[in-house]
Backbone:
């Protein structure tokens, strides 16, 4: 390793940065004798960059050479950028050295496509093999499956890594074909299906033999770019909820489009990345995964896009005042979860605490309920407050969104001169 | 006012509980030699620490509180906050006196406060797991200075011991001037002299103490940190929210 490594690192980290996923959760691994590393089961972030994103895994491309020419990607072949590639040994050693210093939880390996998908996948596999077999590395590895690579290679990778992902990138196939003429949905869904099949088979085998090998134990994830195409939130969330129905799917990531390639008439010109919309999509995603909301409750034909002014749960509550007020001292858990301003943690605390006596609004506040939002939707021990039904949804909306607008405005501060 | 004086150990605190139930005297304040002596004392008792008695109290608590709640109590103790002795005393007393225990009653101020402090201590320990940075020294020991808010070093030992099983390391608390040294077999407490500590506090041991490659890998990491940032999304507030500035001191990528 020398100065050249430093140059490669700069180029290939810069080229990898638009991939959102950084999670290191979902598997636990114990140290192997004579080896290094563990995975804790929940993710650990080791640093946060000035954009506020977490560094958990060493996110890097093996190479930024690419045979494809996708309009939304900074590594497309028609771009005039410096190209380089890591040697497998070099990248494996770098990962270990970073890991030893507690900089990272493991490796997130992605790559541009050199020659053909199989060749690329083989090169990536070499890095992973070196880590697991030579360095006896037992930390987390997330690897991209290259669309179009053979099942045999995906199967080999699946036995070594913790998580695999294939990115959808564009939320509808017609728009994908427009922006990336060489790709289609079947090249994405085929490896996704194969990974899932491998996981289910491995789970089945492990029921019979505890020592049967694990296959992608942390499941798979994908990413869609938001705002590069006219696809609306309804399309995006419907797609995400369909993916979450598959047992292997752990996360869908949403990435606000950043214009990396200027002067392409197929892409919109955005003054700033759609960060508020991205944030609302993550909130909606959260509601689907942990709050038992269905996609069609959050967005429908009348409201195909999420409200940027209020969060999706508040938006739902304001469209359904007939559901409220809810008595926190008697309502079941699922109903309490639907109250704006109450999260999973406070909902659980309410359920356990109310057995000792009826809860007051003061106690709710201490438990962690955000009364500014919840007060319009609940009844507790005191006389009922004025709820959304007396005050009207329009009034409540004004009350809560003025503040939320301010929070949204703060999210939008990114006019800092980087000075290069 | 009834006050107890004790030796400021956890066993001492449990001995206070034993003493209180034995004598039917319940203190309004528990203090130790290092604390300021309270005013308006009507009755004062000096409680001797007796391991036998403290064990009996702990046994009684095992029947009333889950393991999770007992661990929370230990975390609260590690916070070293001035309120801990009385807070824990009240919590224990309520647990013993209430027929079903009070563990789940988060409507109670003390129960909630125990949970809050325990959570803060756990967060502080987790921040260490996130932000510890090892530097390779010439003698092959991986060294990491830290300055946690609470006395949480003991909580993170299992994590680092299993993760870096074959790598000798020192994690050193520069605030409390005490560290843990793992020699690839066991972990022991160590302490540096004041003179060495001054140098350690800066977080940058002299170059002659570090391995040849250390500076290079720190530089690689620094460059990586810069390159992985998306400049169109700069959001320093969010960065600080996740990684408060007081943890920056020993991070090579930022300082």
Residues:
């Amino acid at each position: 390793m020398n100065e050249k490594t430093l140059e490669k690192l700069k180029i290939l980290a810069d080229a990898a940065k638009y991939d959102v996923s950084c999670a290191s959760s979902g598997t636990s691994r114990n140290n192997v004798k004579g080896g290094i590393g563990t995975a804790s089961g929940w993710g650990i972030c080791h640093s946060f960059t000035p954009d506020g994103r977490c560094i958990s895994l060493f996110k890097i491309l093996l190479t930024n050479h690419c045979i494809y020419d996708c309009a939304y990607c900074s590594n497309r072949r028609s771009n005039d950028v410096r190209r380089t590639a890591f040697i497998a040994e070099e990248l494996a050693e770098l990962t270990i050295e970073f890991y030893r210093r507690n900089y990272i939880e493991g490796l997130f390996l992605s790559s541009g496509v050199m020659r053909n998908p199989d060749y690329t996948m083989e090169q990536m596999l070499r890095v992973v093999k070196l880590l697991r077999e030579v360095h006896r590395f037992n930390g987390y590895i997330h690897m991209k499956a290259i669309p179009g690579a053979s099942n045999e290679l995906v199967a080999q990778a699946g036995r070594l890594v913790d998580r695999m992902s294939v990115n959808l990138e564009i939320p509808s196939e017609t728009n994908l074909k427009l922006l990336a003429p060489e790709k289609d949905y079947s090249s994405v869904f085929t490896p996704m299906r194969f990974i899932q099949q491998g996981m289910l088979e491995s789970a089945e085998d492990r029921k019979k033999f505890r020592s049967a090998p694990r296959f992608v134990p942390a499941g798979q994830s994908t990413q869609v770019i938001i705002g590069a195409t006219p696809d609306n939130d309804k399309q995006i969330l419907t797609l995400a909820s369909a993916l979450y129905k598959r047992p292997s799917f752990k996360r869908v990531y949403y990435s606000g489009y950043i214009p990396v390639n200027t002067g392409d008439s197929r892409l919109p010109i955005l003054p700033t990345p759609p960060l508020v919309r991205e944030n609302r999509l993550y909130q909606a995603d959260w509601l689907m995964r942990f709050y038992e909301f269905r996609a069609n409750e959050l967005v429908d034909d009348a409201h195909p896009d999420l409200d940027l002014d209020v969060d999706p749960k508040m938006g739902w509550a304001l469209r359904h005042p007939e559901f409220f007020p809810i008595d926190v001292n008697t309502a079941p858990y699922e109903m309490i979860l639907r109250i704006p301003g109450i999260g999973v943690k406070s909902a659980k605390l309410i359920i356990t605490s109310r057995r000792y006596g009826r809860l007051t609004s003061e106690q709710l506040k201490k438990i962690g309920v955000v009364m500014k939002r919840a007060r319009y939707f609940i009844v507790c021990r005191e006389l009922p407050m004025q709820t959304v039904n007396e005050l009207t949804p329009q009034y409540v909306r004004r009350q809560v969104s003025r503040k939320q607008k301010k929070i949204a405005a703060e999210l939008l501060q990114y006019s800092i001169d980087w000075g290069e | 006012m009834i006050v107890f004086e004790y030796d400021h150990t956890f066993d001492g605190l449990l001995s206070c509980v034993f003493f209180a139930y034995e004598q039917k005297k319940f203190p309004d304040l528990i203090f130790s030699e290092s604390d300021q002596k309270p005013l308006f004392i009507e009755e004062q008792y000096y409680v001797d620490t007796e391991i036998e008695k403290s064990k009996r109290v702990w046994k009684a608590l095992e029947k009333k509180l889950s393991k999770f709640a007992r661990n929370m109590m230990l975390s609260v103790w590690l916070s070293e906050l001035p309120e801990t002795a009385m807070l824990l005393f009240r919590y224990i007393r309520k647990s013993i006196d209430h027929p079903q225990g009070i563990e789940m009653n988060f409507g109670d101020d003390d129960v909630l406060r125990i949970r809050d402090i325990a959570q803060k201590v756990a967060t502080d320990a987790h921040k260490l797991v996130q932000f510890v940075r090892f530097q390779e020294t010439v003698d092959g020991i991986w060294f990491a200075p830290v300055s946690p808010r609470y006395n949480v070093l003991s909580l993170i030992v299992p994590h680092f011991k299993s993760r870096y099983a074959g790598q000798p390391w020192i994690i050193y608390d520069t605030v409390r001037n005490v560290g843990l040294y793992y020699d690839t077999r066991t972990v022991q407490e160590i302490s540096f002299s004041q003179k060495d500590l001054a140098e350690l506090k800066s977080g940058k041991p002299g170059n002659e103490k570090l391995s040849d490659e250390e500076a290079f890998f720190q530089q690689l990491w620094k460059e990586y940190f810069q390159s992985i940032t998306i400049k169109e999304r700069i959001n320093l507030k969010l960065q600080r929210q996740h990684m408060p500035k007081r943890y920056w001191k020993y991070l090579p990528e930022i300082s």
Q: What stands out?
A: Residues 8 and 34 of chain B are 9 Å apart (CA to CA).
